[in-house]
Amino acid sequence: MHGMKRILHVVSLSICVFLHGSAQQAVVQGEVFDLNTHSPLSGVHVIYGEGHGTITSPEGWFSFEITPGTISLVFKYLGYQTHSQSLIVNRKDTVILTIGLIPAFSEIDELVVSPSKSEQKISELNVSTILIRPARLLENHIVTAEEIINQTPGIEVMDSQASIRGGSGYAYGVGSRVLVMIDGMPALAADAGNIKWSFLPLENLSQIEIIKGASSVLYGSSALNGIINFRTQEATPEPSVQFSLSSGIYDKARNKSWVWWDTPRMYHNVSFSFSRRYGNTGIGIGGKLLYDNGYRRLNDEKLGSLNLKIKRHAAKIEGLTYGARMSAGYQEKTDFLLWEDADTGALRQNEATANALHGLMLTIDPFVSFDNNGRFKHDLSMRYQKTRNRLPESSQNNSDATSYYTEYQLSYAVLQKLDLIAGAAGTFSRIISPFYENHNGLNLAGYTQLDYRPFNRLKLQAGLRVEHNRLDDVSDKLIPIFRTGLNYQAGKFTFLRASFGQGYRYPSIAEKFATTTIGSIRIFPNPGIEPESGWSAEIGVKQGIYAKNSTGQFDLSVFYTRSDKLIEYIFGIYPDPVTHEGVYGFQAVNTEHARIYGFEIETALNRSFNAFHTGIHAGYTYIYPAEYDINSNQNTGEFLKYRRKHSLSITATTSYRKFDLGLNMYFRSKILNIDDVFLNPLTRESLLPGFYEYWQQDNKGYVLLDGFLTFHLNEHFSLSFGIKNITNTEYIGRPGDIQPQRNYSLQVSGSF
Asked: Cα 545 vs. chain centroid, distance in angstroms?
């Protein structure tokens, strides 16, 4: 059938030769198809020179006129390997091409930058890495970065704090052992050291790269538990315009006595992005508006953000690029801290803890890069970041934090089998706040990493970082950090890996100096708190799956993490900074020596059959998070707080003609341990009335189901309906934090 179609198209194109016979331009035409199934591919980007391109029709055909001479063609399509070829065309020629694209090997052939700061195939890495594409966000109606990260195997985000493989618990909104970046630039707030999820760019996203395990050698403090890098799109000659409009409504909670509203609780989101390369200059712009009036009383949010990226390829100096990325966002919200009570007020915030927040975040990231044909590359990157927090009803907690970050990196191919990465980075921060008091911080670091291939199948890697931190007039000692790893290709589609890496994290300004009272909660400063450190190791295997009409991968890893002087907030009696009398409250202290060991399994399978295209992705993580005694080197019998042993996610999607259908399942086991203050008879009722009884009955783990159905109106527009928490499961995060009940959303999206 496909062969007959191809004959008919060749005949029609032959007629075009005659019709174009008098033209002065040359004509290039042809068909693009799947090399395995011979099915035509619609929407393939066909790029033919600076600023020129087209896309294939629904039948997989393309046609364009071009000036005679030597031309270079590039065929790009998501899920397939890029194909390039050169042609010599003469005046009045009509060239007919048939291009078969090879399906990409699922995640094995995907390229990432984050693990080693240079582009590599994911199969060649020596650490566990997860890649998230923007299509996943769109089809699942995800509008916040926090939600998509929380759905990732082996990761939990508990009340805005990310934990990879149990490396973090809950620390009351300050400090992060996971470093979040935007295009490789650190994006943690300079005062609280936390993640500003709402301001992370999703509207012009290329991919999200997640590295599991200590990554401090290349990325420094706060990468103790791993990194999450949000990479934005690169502009191409073919313009890209995307938009999304969605609205949702919360259903009633399963516990009807918790329902406090008499008008619908709704949320709305609008986002857009545009990118295009004009000659030597690429431009990308994106923005979003979000409004959520909340399913919980006194817990609403309004947000607006805009980002711009400009990248210029120098016309006279080959390999030189420069530009800047800028973003700005403003937010008005009220975070949920403590409920009123467990009987009727679990979705009502205690008014004594409800504080409105007006937040602003501004970043400017200039950069310049010079690449000498792959032999060596120089990168100079900078970031100016400003965060401003205003609490109208609690001005003593206001804060202004400014940071200036600069990094230089050299990539050098020393020998054919030996590559060197070396660099230096510095961060200066300035905090002005009655909450933390005023402080100046300086962090300086130098690092190097060697990649060596003794033979084609084996890749060895080793790196070293030296870091120095200074806060006000106090300097910490010089800290060396080491990592090493290897990747061995044992078979055509089989890759073995092993890695070891050290990590280090300096306490945030908030952990050292925050002092406040929120309702019945008192927070005390601890200027003498020390940095926390640790190391992680893993071994793993990645197996590619390739068969007729099917591709996929299977990944198994076993890991061990050890941490010393962990920073945790502990409830106790602490001296009041003014009266010096002993008062009950929380303080960040170095407490636990911890180790976490476990294993992780991830698998993906994609299959095409006639008009059906089906994908199944699953991930299971088991951890054993324990405190241990440094003298006996034995576990103490106490579990680390706010961790779970088991987590599982399964995602199934199928496409048929104009319809896409998806179902997601998430399972998490019970939380193993929490702060004693929520269980102790002397304190529990004053903080969270009714929580103790609720915890005894309902800390059992949970299963969630989400689903979506999408109808593609045409090649540009889609209409989608989604349901989250289909079974209306009642579940909780940290104490007093009931998670969303069932909610429905409708989404209209477009792509040009």
From this structure: 26
- What are 517's strand-pairing partners? 522
Q: Are 279 and 51 in contact (CB under 8 A)?
A: yes
> What average pLDDT does the segment 688-714 reach?
95
CA angle 590, 528, 428 (to 5 degrees): 105
Q: Write down the pLDDT at residue 551.
A: 81
pLDDT, residue 485, reads: 96
Q: Is the pLDDT of residue 17 over 90?
A: no
Tell which residue, 126, 116, 210, 102, has the closest CA to residue 495.
126
Residue with tokens 């009655």: 434
Task: Answer for the pair 621, 597: CB distance below 8 angstroms, yes or no.
Answer: no
Strand partners, 406: 382, 426
By residue count, the chain amounts to: 752
Q: What pLDDT band is residue 569 in, cutting at 50, 70 and 90? A: confident
What CA–CA distance (Å, rounded) separates 238 from 45? Answer: 8
Query: 98: closest CA among 44, 25, 23?
Result: 44
Question: What residues contact residue 680 under an 8 Å CB cut-off, 6+ apart?
Answer: none
List, for residues 275-284, the tens digit of each pLDDT value.
999 999 999 9
Q: Is 518 helix (H, G, I), strand (E, B) or coil?
A: strand
- Which three-class secondary structure state does DSSP give residue 524? strand
Give yes or no for residue 468 having a pLDDT over 90: yes
The single-letter DSSP state of residue 490 is E
> What is the rounded radius of gyration, in angstroms, for the C-alpha atoms of the chain?
27
**In terms of Cα–Cα distance, which of 135, 236, 226, 137 is closest to 180?**
226
pLDDT at 23: 47
| Alpha carbon distance 254, 741 (integer Å) | 8
Per-residue pLDDT of 221-256, as tens digits, reads: 888 899 999 999 888 888 889 999 999 999 999 999
CA distance 389 to 412: 42
Strand partners, 479: 467
Task: Give the Å distances, CA to CA, from 289 to 104, 143, 325, 750.
Answer: 35, 10, 20, 17
Is 357 within 8 Å of 332 (Cβ atoms)? yes
Q: What span, in angstroms and rounded, lies between the C-alpha atoms of 317 and 312?
A: 11
CA 84, 549, 208, 625: dihedral to nearest 10 degrees?
A: -140
* Model confidence band, residue 690 (pLDDT cutoffs 50, 70, 90): very high
Mean pLDDT of 97-107: 76
Of the candidates 214, 126, 117, the residue with the CA atom closest to the CA atom of residue 164: 214
484: tokens are: 């090493």
In 118-263, the DSSP E strands lie at: 120-121, 129-132, 155-158, 161-164, 178-182, 185-186, 205-212, 226-232, 240-250
Neighbours of 580 (CB within 10 A): 8
**What amino acid occupies position 411?**
S
pLDDT at residue 109, as a whole number = 66
Is the model's pLDDT at 177 over the cut of 90? yes
- Do strands 494-505 and 516-518 pair parallel, antiparallel, or not at all (unpaired)? unpaired
Number of Cβ within 10 Å of residue 617's Cβ equals 21
408 near 380, Cβ under 8 Å? yes
Return the number of other C-beta atoms located less than 10 Å from residue 324's C-beta. 15
Q: What is the mean pLDDT of the chain?
A: 90
Question: Is pLDDT at 7 greater than 60 in this prediction?
Answer: no
Two tokens, residue 78: 């998501």
Write the single-letter amino acid at 148. Answer: I
What is the Cα–Cα distance from 300 to 292, expressed in whole angstroms?
6
Residues 116, 451: contact at Cβ < 8 Å?
yes
Mean pLDDT confidence for 302-331: 96
How far the first Cα of the chain sits from its last, in Å, is 30
Helix/strand/coil for 198: helix
Q: Residue 15: what pLDDT? A: 43
Amino acid identity at 15? I
